[in-house]
Amino acid sequence: MSRFCGMQLMVYSAADRSTAALSPANLLSQLAESRASGCLTILSQDVSWIFYLHNGNLFYGITSIDPFDCLERNLKAFSAEIPNIDRPIRQQIRSLFEKQEGSNSTAVYQALSWLRSEGFINQFQTDLLIKNLIKETLESFLSLQTASHRFLALDPSLPILTEFTVFPLLDETFQRLREWSGLSEKVYSPFQSPYLFSQSTSNNKFSPEKLQKLGNLLKGYSLRHLAALIHQDEIKLMRSLDPYIQEGVVFFREPQPPFDKLPPLLRSDLISGNTAIAGPVDTSNNLTSSPSATARPVKIVCIDDSPIILSELRRFLDEDRFEVITIIDSVKALMEVMRIEPDLILLDVGMPNVDGYKFCKVVRNHPNFKTTPIIMVTGNTGLIDRAKAKMSGATDYLTKPFTQEGLLNIVNQHLHKQF
What we know:
The protein is an alpha/beta fold. Helix content is about 40%, strand content about 15%. The protein has three domains: about 10-165, no CATH class; about 195-255; about 290-419, Rossmann fold (3-Layer(aba) Sandwich), CATH 3.40.50.2300. Strands 10-9-11-12-13 form a five-stranded parallel sheet, sandwiched between helices. It comes from Synechococcus sp. (strain ATCC 27144 / PCC 6301 / SAUG 1402/1) (Anacystis nidulans). Keywords: Phosphoprotein.
């Protein structure tokens, strides 16, 4: 097992009354490797981090810093994927589960369980929400310098809505922290608030119209809240602001309470170059025996209007075996497909402007793509939908929610036929 580099976390176990020096990542890794089940609570100053584990897998994570804000923000961010949960439903969730006293951290999980049981979210949407809550919690947890912890038994009646392997989540979070540290040195927290210093026209690099538009956007929200409101990835949002930061047009305020209690993001020099922890290797879908692993990587184009879905597809497809290209705009996608000439296309059905059926027909009419596998990815399960996919020229049909195993099986199946 390779070691994670980072600050040492002084941990205190309520179980054995002992203390030890561990990195935050190694603490979770040891619980994962021992297939532990329980509630891990990390305490630092006035903040707690809570992780639920079952047989070494994570199935929930959140901090004590306004957990219902965290839930509501993610519901807004995923509004395209979870259209059933509008503002009245979000208000109902707060009225039903938010507590005036006691732990709202547990109440958020109860709210998620209620949303699932009442049919407001399906399994795929549940996975998206909970995974994002865990990763956001890990982000600040891995940045801790000192803390104590306790590990207690789980309530046996607690429903397990989903489970995630610890090691990939740690890798993804460390990669995200590296991306954060590569941004402006003025940013050390996603809860800092960008603001326009001046809309003066004395800066010739930006037009008055651009500055006015930017001023209307930056209304005192933190980076994280603003990204959720405009359905934008936080890193991309920061990169789009970078020219204004460099010119001294945009500055950052300190995180507002209670978010000022969270630690600064871990710096890149404290993250090891290789943050992968060796875990059990699943070889059931190993494609090394197929032609896809020979002369060049297989090019797979994933087209979807949801950045969350594209992120999941990229994560599920092993990039050592595949070259994965994600495209979010269906209008621009056609030219990109012609340029890339992929070996396989994963295509969402329900896209604005050009839906998957129309897109598939256009691609199929091109002589270069008569035999290219095109797999429709959709939540529609009816026979009519399958017939429409077939008539448009789709090779196969993958229904949401899907597992990594299901995705790799269908991809492998058609790549073998292709080659």
